[in-house]
Amino acid sequence: MIRIGRKRLWASFFCFTAFFFLLVTLQVVLELGKSERKIKVSSLQDGSLKLEEQQKHAYQFFNKQELYSNTRRVLDADRYPILLWWSPLTGETGRLGQCGQDVCFFTIKRTYQHNHMTKAFLFYGTDFNIDSLPLPRKRHHDWALFHEESPKNNYKLFHKPTITLFNHTATFSRHSHLPLTTQYLEGIEVIKSLRYMVPLQKKNSLRKGLAPLVYVQSDCDPPSDRDSYVRELMSYIQVDAYGECLHNRDLPQHLKNPASMDDGNFYRILAQYKFILAFENAVCEDYITEKLWRPLKLGVVPVYYGSPSITDWLPSNKSAILVTRFSHPRELAHYIKALDTNDQEYEAYLEWKVKGAISNQRLLAAIQERKWGVQDITQDNYIDVFECMVCNRVWENIRRQEKGLSPRRWNAQVNHLSCPKPEAFLFSSPNIRWTSLQEMWIPSFEQSKKEAQALRQLVERNMNFTAQEFWTLVFKEETR
Ligand SMILES: *[C@@H]1O[C@H](CO)[C@@H](O)[C@H](O)[C@H]1NC(C)=O
Ligand SMILES: *[C@@H]1O[C@H](CO)[C@@H](O)[C@H](O)[C@H]1NC(C)=O
Ligand SMILES: *[C@@H]1O[C@H](CO)[C@@H](O)[C@H](O)[C@H]1NC(C)=O
Description:
Layout: H1 2-45, H2 51-79, E1 82-85, E2 95-99, E3 102-107, E4 118-124, E5 142-147, H3 160-163, E6 168-171, H4 188-192, H5 200-206, E7 213-215, H6 226-233, E8 239-241, H7 264-271, E9 275-279, H8 290-298, E10 301-305, E11 321-322, H9 329-340, H10 343-348, H11 351-355, H12 361-369, H13 382-402, H14 434-461, H15 467-479
Parallel strand pairs: 1-3, 1-4, 4-5, 5-6, 7-8, 7-9, 9-10, 10-11
Antiparallel strand pairs: 2-3
The structure holds 2-acetamido-2-deoxy-beta-D-glucopyranose (3 copies).
């Protein structure tokens, strides 16, 4: 009797220890996963680190995690749906992610492609490549696209045949499943803040040495053709251009490095101006970057060119000057000159800020309702939220299936990612730089339509294909 009792005691002690050990291991895995992601995100969101560098950071952490999770991973991958990143973006070879009540296994390891638990493939738009797509695609293989960047990166995704291949989307468009439209805005407080704002009297006296307008751009001749516009504008009004594009004024030496773009000193230089030329590199609905938010933060009036629906996102009805309201740069210059000499008219554009009165309910709601933060380690980042959106949807369908219900269908619509063809500004004076647009962006846009067609055909065939097959098909489209 006694011996049996002791055996039981030992057995339960052993069980308890094993359980405790597992619990600790799991905790360590989750914690390591978390800290790794924080690092990745802070570098991703300030945009200053390149992809390889992010991965380097990620891998450093991962080697540690692998020590703990190698054995568990085999078990985990069998119990939870696998969401396979078809991109090295996160650098995570294996992580259990908790998404509300649901748990999914996230990995970038392509060896999981044929695992029966693999339920979704996650793609990162910028490195979405026709090479080695996960084909054949099974019925239960959801495809999810994360693409926060400018359409400059990977035009072929911006056409109906390709975007509609996906089930779940996170893009800059308000129509996507996880809209990232406000991805460059940290919060409402930063645009309300008066921290950098220079009083108008001071700006007026600084005008002796500064132009009314400032332009800082080092990515020259992008699809929006902004440099052509600004070049033309410069023949009607003075513009201080500090960047590489149309450069006519030098930054202080210590600010020349692009990495110092968010430097307070740089902000203070810009804040001295009355107007900032805020021109996006591409013209797409809801594609809005720090080019807009920065002047609003600084208390400088943005002269904006970019998203055609920008009035949906401005803090108030009178907070920016819209380039598209003017028929010619000459007219715009004329208007700015008028504001430059009329303090009352100028200040009307900053009234929202001085009063802290943001009347745009759409903007307020978007910031309040988003589940991710911008440069804020206390909040999830948008990649976590995207992963969890897909995880929750995958689980929803698993549960429906268990109950004998048909799965809920998710499909990307064409407006989840769409941009019109780039257009050149046509001014009377001959414009030498057009060529970059005519010779590069427009042909590349046209070509990308054919690529989208070809890709669609091949994916629908549902067999893996070679790059050569793809290009042959693109070429056929061309000669058709
Ligand atoms: C702009 O003004 C219109 C008409 O007065 C109003 O309906 C709209 O809500 C205003 N928009 C913002 C962002 O304040
Ligand atoms: C995902 O998209 C594919 C292709 O459009 C479709 O066949 C499949 O049913 C979709 N899956 C879900 C869960 O909606
Ligand atoms: C398709 O995949 C199979 C199995 O992985 C491979 O052997 C074959 O070479 C691939 N074919 C193409 C066209 O890439």
